[in-house]
Amino acid sequence: MIRLPLAVAGLLAGLAGFIASPVAAAAAPPEALLAIEEHRFQPEEIRVKAGAPFVLVIANRDAGPEEFDSTDLRIEKVIPAGKTVRLRLPALKPGTYPFVGEYHEKTARGRIVAE
After folding, report:
1. Domains, the chain, ranges and CATH?
2. Residue 31: which of 60, 56, 59, 68 has the closest Cα?
3. Among 34, 39, 103, 114, which one is most buried in terms of CB atoms within 10 A?
4. Amino acid 27: pLDDT
5. Can you tell me the distance from the alpha carbon of 68 to that of 63, in angstroms, rounded to the nearest whole number?
6. Partners of 101 in the beta sheet?
7. Buried b (16+ CB within 10 A) or exposed e, 42-60
8. For each successive 10 residues of the chain (115 residues), what is the average pLDDT?
């Protein structure tokens, strides 16, 4: 049996409590869900809280790849067919941020509204 000095044992116990605390788990950013179906984004509009980071979860349910492209958000990401990607986005200022599916620009259009 290993005996630790009382100060070290207390420090380890405190760290274990902090790591397992609900505060650390509550810090995870909210998710916004987006699907690609029949070369369209569903839903076409996503609303998020301005000033708060979030995770954009994009599920491509089509048989081919699609590229999520937003000039305003500075994102270009190819989502392979049948795959899901998670994009961590920073806090956005209030406004509307359009995006397109670059492979099907005529039908794959949408926007993120930060309010």
Report:
1. 29-114 (2.60.40.420)
2. 56
3. 34
4. 74
5. 16
6. 68
7. eeeebebeeeeebebebbb
8. 53 52 67 96 97 97 96 96 96 97 95 97
β-pairing, 75-79 vs 66-70, is antiparallel
Token match 């806090």: residue?
Answer: 91
pTM of the model: 0.75
Please name the residues in contact with 113: beta carbons below 8 A apart, sequence gap of 6 or more: 45, 46, 47, 48, 95, 96, 97
Distances (CA, A) of 60 to 9, 26, 76, 93: 49, 28, 15, 27
Nearest alpha-carbon partner for 36 in 61, 56, 55, 57: 61
* Predicted pLDDT of residue 28: 85
Q: What angle do CA 55, 82, 97 make, to 5 degrees?
A: 35
What's the burial of 21, exposed, middle or buried (CB within 10 Å: 0-12/13-18/19+)? exposed
